[in-house]
Amino acid sequence: MSDVQPWLRVYDWLPLEEASLSPGYRSWLSECGSMTARCERHCRRFTVHLQREAFIARDELSEELTQLPDCAHYWLREVTLCGDGVPWIQGRTLVPETSLSGEMRTLMSLGTVPLGRFLFSTDTLARDYIQVGVQDETLWARRSRLRLEGKPLLLTELFLADAPMYVETNDFLGCGNV
């Protein structure tokens, strides 16, 4: 049985290029820089609330396994990102245990430090792809397979109703075709 939290269940992931998106949504969902830095421009105080950090077994994952190398265990980090105390993004990071060497070991001790602050401070970060999806026909999500020192991790972000991408685009219910 999958241990994916219900708030991160997205069933139809599409490559970013294939999704029908308004320009405002596309701007947010295709962000290649740090989402942390982008969110920080929309609030006075940006915080990370740690929900869970732990090793999990491969049988606790579902479709996510197709996005990462096969491994017995994965490092899981689930967080809520808040702007001025308001939940904006639910985040989930998965790292194969075999990837946790060198700089990647830092991922296990981030605590309430934003992932983006760490990742974008390195010079070995690369992004393989961005996929987008919709949850409950109202909330956009994206996931990216990133590589640090050539080793993969999967990052999923669900943009909650109060996230600045909806305020900035003024198009909360207009998800279009995913």
TrEMBL record:
Molecular function via GO: chorismate lyase activity
Family that this chain belongs to: Belongs to the UbiC family.
What's a GO biological-process term for it?
pyruvate biosynthetic process
Q: EC no.?
A: 4.1.3.40
The residues the record assigns to binding substrate are 35, 77, 115, 157
From what organism does this protein derive? Enterobacillus tribolii
Q: How does it assemble?
A: Monomer.
GO CC entries: cytosol
Quick one: which pathway? Cofactor biosynthesis; ubiquinone biosynthesis
Write down what this protein is called. Answer: Chorismate pyruvate-lyase
NCBIfam families, per database record: PRK11655.1
Q: Which reaction does it catalyse?
A: chorismate = 4-hydroxybenzoate + pyruvate
User: Where mainly found?
Assistant: cytoplasm
UniProt keywords, alphabetically: Cytoplasm, Lyase, Pyruvate, Ubiquinone biosynthesis
Show the InterPro entries listed in the entry.
Chorismate--pyruvate_lyase (IPR007440), Chorismate_lyase_/UTRA_dom_sf (IPR028978)
Gene encoding this chain? ubiC
UniProt cross-references to Gene3D superfamilies, sorted A to Z: Chorismate lyase-like
The record's subcellular locations are: Cytoplasm
Cross-referenced SUPFAM superfamilies, in alphabetical order?
Chorismate lyase-like
The function of this protein is: Removes the pyruvyl group from chorismate, with concomitant aromatization of the ring, to provide 4-hydroxybenzoate (4HB) for the ubiquinone pathway.
